[in-house]
Amino acid sequence: MDNATVLIVEDDTSIAQFVAASLSAAGLRPVTAATAAHGLDEARGHNPRLIIVDLGLPDLDGVELITRLRARSATPILVLSARIQEAQKIAALDAGADDYLTKPFGVGELIARVRAMLRRAAASPGPAPLVRVGGLALDREAHELRLDGSPVHLSPLEYRLLERLALAQGKVVTHRQLLADVWGTEQVDQLHYLRIYMGHLRAKIEANPAEPRYLLTELGVGYRLADE
What we know:
The protein is of the alpha/beta class. The chain is built from 8 helices and 12 strands. The chain folds into 2 domains: 5-123, Response regulator (Rossmann fold), CATH 3.40.50.2300; 130-225, Winged helix-like DNA-binding domain superfamily/Winged helix DNA-binding domain (Arc Repressor Mutant, subunit A), CATH 1.10.10. The strands form 3 sheets. The chain has a 5-stranded parallel β-sheet, with helices on both faces. It has a 4-stranded antiparallel β-sheet with strand order 6-7-8-9, with helices on one face. It has a 3-stranded antiparallel β-sheet with strand order 10-12-11. Strand 6 (130-133) and strand 7 (136-139) form a beta hairpin. The longest helix has 17 residues, at 107-123.
């Protein structure tokens, strides 16, 4: 993970330099690009382990850049943007981004997100059969969930919802993605289904469902399974 190349596609020179300096101090090797076209060239030339993308680029919208990057590789993509509208976050995630950090942000959170994404990418080329976080253990081969060593009974829909989140552990999965993958594409507007079943899951897993430890909410965007 140390000395991993991280591509930063950011047209604001001061932010690009700040992010690059923060990554260098953390033992990573930053490469910068000020336009989407330059970013695509650098992605080809450096084969980075992670790409950080600003949405407000001068030559191409960041969402379109994410779409083009994702079409050619599975390299993790972290969005940094001042855009705070939920629809824009959702568009970036649906285009293939793995995480989203809104400006302004702290160095500690940036580095934590980057390291978590690099760990996930390096952990396995495919989905792990056993997913662990804290006292939670999901055995995808046995279709079994345990909490602090004790089995937890899940309905088929509850299991499919948890498994979908586990396959993207640590990453935000949008409401539409969850509804399409668990209930089918014809149900992508039925947000109440998702809220009901997420409530059921939290009641079975969380010590305090109102302050979840495992099943985290990204307001207006989707959910994620904690990875630490």
